[in-house]
Amino acid sequence: MSITQQEMSLVTANPPPINVDQIFAEVEMSGAETSQTVRATVVQASTVFYDTPATLDKAERLLAEAAENGSHLVVFPEAFIGGYPRGSSFELAIGARTAKGRDDFRKYHASAIDVPGPEVERLAEMAKKYRVFLVMGVIEREGYTLYCTVLFFDPQGQFLGKHRKLMPTALERCIWGFGDGSTIPVFDTPIGKIGAAICWENRMPSLRTAMYAKGIEIYCAPTADARETWQASMTHIALEGGCFVLSANQFCRRKDYPPPPEYLFSGSEDSLTLDSVVCAGGSSIISPLGVVLAGPNYEGEALISADLDLGDIARAKFDFDVVGHYSRPEVFSLNIREHPRKAVSFTTKVTKDETVKKT
Question: How would you classify the pairing of strands 244-249 and 218-223?
Answer without folding.
Answer: parallel
